[in-house]
Design a protein that fits this description.
InterPro entries: GH, Glyco_hydro_5, Glycosyl_hydrolase_5. The chain is of the alpha/beta class. The protein folds into 2 domains: 283 residues, Alpha-Beta Barrel (TIM Barrel), CATH 3.20.20.80; 162 residues, Sandwich (Jelly Rolls). Helix content is 30%, strand content 23%. The strands form 5 sheets. An 8-stranded parallel barrel has the order 3-4-5-6-7-8-9-10. Strands 14, 16, 17, 19, 23 and 25 form a 6-stranded antiparallel beta sheet that branches. The longest helix is centred in the middle third of the chain and has 18 residues.
Length: 580
């Protein structure tokens, strides 16, 4: 047998065609309209993008209009100087993503991660090159990518490389590519295009034999009007010839050094306008469309599905998110019904509608208030301490808050929408008390019912149009707020809305249900236990006050408790069951 194996190995080494065919089986690839794994089985990518790590955007740091990273860096430099700003960014790159983040993603059930690359971690900008037309390669970006790949391989998670900020910037949405409009864009500069092409060849040469890299996402969200100034983001382009030409040039140099990896291409108009780009020019290629702030039904995927069928090419939702848990669940359920994989955005930021919530220190919050014109300028020492605490501690996984509701909305609810306890609610003989905001997981019609469960009509303009007007604690459609002790409360359970709680009782027993409420005249609460509706009880109080709602007979084991608001909106802080 050993001799047979050696003979086979020699045959493969002497037969380039066979050797290449065998090697190709070890990589994720396109097969007809499907993305398949190295064994040729359909691969449904479920992943997150690491936005904010190699490339910052202002909103992720609650910096609003500062937008592109070069403006953020300039603002920090103005406060603490260039040397200390450099220290901050070094610490940021070291701590923002660690192995603990990737371990957690694997434990939760994600199987892939999309890495947004900023070119300036890999090579100098063209205007800084010592010799025009040459490329100075930097170790930082490659070392970080190598490290992330090692963590991904340890967890059997696929890595997708995504050029998020190309030399010069690839669009008029400045923040997403860190574009400086005072300098030549990607499309206005042949030097920037050549550097982009060279970077991809360098990356492909380095990672050509890495099967845990699922593919190369060549250019994130191009948004450029090639034909006229009234179409800044290229949404009405019918040719897209410069984009097609650049993507073909990148593909050609990749294939000189790497015949194996899947290549993703994105259309103009933030990845969604493919007019003039197709048909594909490589047999191992997929389309990456993006989806934000729109409907979650099958009709919302109509354009992408038609492209898949017409051109017999796989499609992948390479970026989506920034909405409510219910929007996530509904979108993912629709995608997976059509065998479309996804990568949502981002894994973490200083907001709660992502798996990890960075909770910034008070000094940084003061710094943000200053930069927004709402507070006095902090001293250089105070600003430095705040920024370094953010970069060395706050951003690290062990200090992040895991938004279990978001993870469940992505990985459990799309296929198994059912109520399950957000926190264990187990009664003892002495009863039980718990936060009203700890209603069940499961989403709309299972863990809760909210009048506004998501937003499908464009990015919300103000707090009143968000699903959770307070944007604290959880990312569902229930309005929450923090009380004076910074504990979460249900801020407005509106007429027709309800909350569900899964309870466990060690034995059958009679209990009184009480609620700590604030409510105007005309408000009431109605409890249902195990689908048996109790009489509604009027509640009215200008201050937090405990009020008895019902006497309930609990069964041993699992019990289902629902609390509804039949009248005016009610505020709820705590609930309790007391034995009779």
């Amino acid at each position: 047998m050993r001799h047979l194996l050696l003979a086979a190995a020699v045959l493969l080494s002497l037969t380039p065609g066979l050797n290449q065919a065998a090697a190709s089986q070890a990589f994720v690839r396109a097969q007809g309209t499907e993305i398949v794994d190295p064994n040729g089985q359909p691969l449904l990518l479920r992943g997150m993008g690491l936005g904010g790590w190699m490339l910052q955007e202002g909103y992720m740091l609650e910096l609003g209009q500062l937008g592109p990273q070069h403006k953020i860096r300039a603002a920090f430099t103005g406060l603490i100087g260039e040397q200390k700003t450099a220290e901050f960014y070094q610490a940021w790159l070291t701590n923002f993503i660690t192995k603990a983040d990737i371990d957690a993603m694997a434990d939760w059930g994600y199987n892939s991660v999309r890495l947004p690359l900023h070119f300036n971690l890999f090579t100098l900008p063209v205007e800084q090159e010592p010799v025009a037309g040459q490329n100075t390669w930097l170790d930082t970006g490659f070392a970080l990518t190598d490290q992330l790949l090692a963590w991904a391989k340890a967890n059997r998670i696929y890595l997708i490389l995504d050029l998020h900020a190309a030399p010069g910037g690839q669009g008029n949405d400045l923040a997403i590519s860190d574009r400086d409009p005072a300098k030549a864009s990607l499309w206005d500069s042949q030097a920037n295009q050549q550097k982009t092409i060279a970077l991809w060849q360098k990356l492909a040469s380095r990672y050509a034999n890495e099967p845990w890299i699922a593919g190369y996402d060549l250019l994130n969200e191009p948004n450029w009007g090639f034909s006229g100034s009234d179409d800044k983001h290229g949404c009405r382009e019918t040719s897209n010839a410069p984009l097609r030409q650049l993507l073909m040039q990148i593909t050609a140099v990749i294939r000189q050094v790497d015949q194996q990896h899947l290549i993703f291409i994105e259309g103009n108009c933030w990845g969604n306008n493919y007019q003039g780009l197709l048909p594909v020019w490589d047999k191992n290629m997929a389309l990456s469309f993006h989806k934000y702030w729109n409907n979650t039904d099958l009709a919302s995927l109509d354009g992408a599905l038609k492209l898949r069928q017409q051109h017999q090419v796989p499609i992948w939702l390479g970026e989506s998110g920034e909405n409510s848990n219910q929007w996530f669940s509904d979108t993912i359920a629709t995608l997976e019904s059509q065998q479309i994989g996804w990568a949502f955005w981002p894994l973490k930021k200083l907001r709660l509608n992502n798996p990890l919530h960075i909770q910034a220190n008070a000094g940084y919050q003061q710094l943000v208030a200053y930069l927004q014109g709402k507070a006095a300028k902090p001293s250089a020492d105070a600003a430095y301490q705040a920024l370094m605490q953010l970069a060395t501690q706050d951003v690290r996984f062990e200090y992040n808050k895991v938004q279990r509701d978001v993870v469940a909305a992505m990985l459990q609810q799309p296929q198994h929408p059912q109520a399950s306890a957000f926190v264990p609610l187990k009664l003892s003989p002495q009863g039980l008390s718990w936060q009203a905001a700890d209603y069940d997981l499961g989403g709309q019609l299972h863990g809760y019912f909210a009048l506004t469960a998501s937003n499908t009509s464009g990015k919300p303009a103000n707090a009143q149009s968000w699903w959770n007007s307070g944007m604290v604690y959880r990312n569902d459609g229930i309005d929450l707020a923090l009380d004076a002790d910074q504990l979460p409360v249900v801020n407005a359970l509106q007429q027709g809305e309800w909350l569900h709680y899964s309870l466990k009782a060690p034995a059958a027993g009679a209990f009184e249900l009480w609620a700590e409420v604030k409510a105007p005249a005309g408000a009431s609460l109605q409890a249902s236990l195990n689908q048996q509706q109790q009489a509604a009880v009027k509640v009215q109080s200008e201050q937090w006050q405990w009020q008895q709602l019902a006497r309930l007979q609990l069964l041993p084991g699992n019990n289902s408790l629902q609390l509804a608001s039949p009248g005016a909106a009610v505020q709820l802080r705590q609930l309790k069951l007391q034995p009779l």
